[in-house]
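Repro:
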Amino acid sequence: MGSMITPQDLSNGKRIEFNNDVFTVVEFQHVKPGKGGSFVRTKLKSMTSGRVLDNTFKGTERIQLADVEYRKMQFSYREGEDCVFMDMDSYEQITMPHDVLGDAIDYIKEGEEVTTIWWKGRPINMDLPPKVDLKVVETMPAERGNTVNNALKAATVETGLVVQVPMFINIGDAIRINTRDGSYESRV
């Protein structure tokens, strides 16, 4: 069991158990009204479904910290919609369903090491770096003179993710992508 904290101990990135799920604190605001007890307004993101909810905790409430485990794993290969990972400590092969990984799988390549997050003995998510570098495998060629500053085109990277990129990006270019929203950052 994770330890208990008060709402005053909440901070961005804390992982808590709430409504039989694990949530990451995305935003929080301590409020001390003139009358009545203090409270904390939060925006919480489910680590299992990705949904975001707003919740207010009373200042006297006790909150369960999530007892999550972090495991280093190597992404081995895709098996249909699912993905097979190898535990870097035990060398055990573990299949994770697509619904657990969600969009995160669009940012990792076969052979890469990732940190997976486990709760109650099952994988629920993975920690992604804020930015990843991936190679463009398909896009329209850049046409001479068609390099308008803000013009964008679709590019498919090696994981299958489609990203909107500037016109000057070509097949074979490595690009940096923001994993929070899937946006193009720069050419690498």
